[in-house]
Predict the 3D structure of the following.
Amino acid sequence: MVLDLIGLKKSLPGGRVLFDRLCLSLASGEIVAIMGESGVGKSTLLNLIAGLDRADEGDILVAGTRLGGLDDDARTQLRRDKIGFVFQAFHILPHLTLAQNIALPLVLAQRSGPEALACAETMLSAVGIPGRGGDYPVQLSGGEVQRIAIARALVHRPALILADEPTGNLDPETARRILALLSQQARAAGAAVLIVTHSDRAAAIADRVLTLGQNGLQVRAQALS
């Protein structure tokens, strides 16, 4: 499995339990959507999986590596090597070119500059924006910027993609195209994808749709239409 969550418990300061006994497994090429009301802990769960926060109880394994046994440096390395991120707010750096933004995970992994930029140009073509590596984010539409975010998330061939409301800032038609692109590119790369979202449209690309609550994850339905 690419991701295994085993008996996770997480509480807020003050003692309110966000979730308890949470279990989940994701296989390579699988897309899972997690839905739920605001405040139930969807983004917190992503932070736990990314090693940015620690669970009160339970285990998290990413590509077979147990996060609980890692120090901060090892967690950072695991994020760089094994995880890609797609956010609602894009988090594209405005002072870097499109190719430089996409190449960032490779640069952090100490791949050579020319090699990293060549891979970035390949990903630009894969997400439908070929030949624009020298442009800057300000020259793009919102949908195009999210394409760059998807390219950056996949360029280092991670085992796991974490997507937090990936289409929240996009109009419905652009959101549909971006979701199709995310699904196509992730499956082609063999990456597992975990999406947290309020959107039925975003959840519709998933193989499984789950609802998060205090007692963990419950099956909501099969993939939505």
